[in-house]
Amino acid sequence: MNDKGQLAEQMAAAYLIEHGLTILARNWSCRHGEIDLVAQDGKQLVFVEVRMRQSSRFGGAAASITPAKQAKLWASAQQYLQGIKSPPACRFDAICIDGQTISWLKNCISA
User: Fold this and answer.
1) pLDDT average, residue stretch 9-33
2) Cα angle at 11 between 58 and 4, to 5 degrees?
3) Phi and psi dihedrals of 80, rounded to 5?
4) Contacts with 70 (C-beta within 8 Å, 6 or more apart), sequence order
5) Which of 48, 66, 42 is nearest to 102 (CA)?
6) Among 40, 35, 47, which Cα is nearest to 22's?
7) What pLDDT does 61 receive?
8) Does domain 3-105 have CATH number 3.40.1350.10?
9) What DSSP string runs through 12-57?
10) Which of the 8 DSSP states describes residue 85?
11) 91 near 77, Cβ under 8 Å?
12) Alpha-carbon distance 107 to 41, whole Å?
């Protein structure tokens, strides 16, 4: 991962912690791909994709989460959940950083 990617994930983790979530894992990877952040929001497990773009001029960070990327995230999350005896309710969020603006898109990816 490059320095910008690490910075984006650090910013995203700090933002989520500031909003009451607990970070359980960073850069969790398996054969399907990588989950940037795994967090706990109350009783819910949250899989977080972090995207950063310099500006939103060409669709921005959110537009970069393609259907193929969503499928990899879903498959990776399934793999992550196999290691948990009683999986809690889950959701997929995205932290999108466009320039200096951080947007938290909750439950934005569905299987």
Assistant:
1) 96
2) 60
3) -60, -45
4) 92, 109
5) 48
6) 40
7) 83
8) yes
9) HHHHHHHTT-EEEEEEEEETTEEEEEEEEETTEEEEEEEEEES-ST
10) S
11) no
12) 12
Single pTM value for the model: 0.90
DSSP characters for 55-95?
Answer: -STTSHHHHT--HHHHHHHHHHHHHHHTT-SS---EEEEEE
pLDDT one-digit tens code per residue, 66-103: 889 899 999 999 999 998 888 899 999 999 998 888 99
The dihedral built from the CA positions of residue 108, 91, 15 and 36, taken in this order, carries a sign that is negative
| Side chain identity at residue 23, one-letter code | I
pLDDT value at residue 58:
63
Taking residue 108's Cβ as centre, other Cβ atoms within 10 Å add up to: 16
pLDDT digits (tens, 9 = 90+) for 47-69: 999 998 875 666 678 878 888 98
Distance CA 43, CA 2 (A): 33
- Amino acid at residue number 47: F
Q: What is the pLDDT of residue 39?
A: 98
Per-residue confidence band for 30, with pLDDT thresholds at 50, 70 and 90: very high
| Whether 36 contacts 24, CB under 8 Å | no
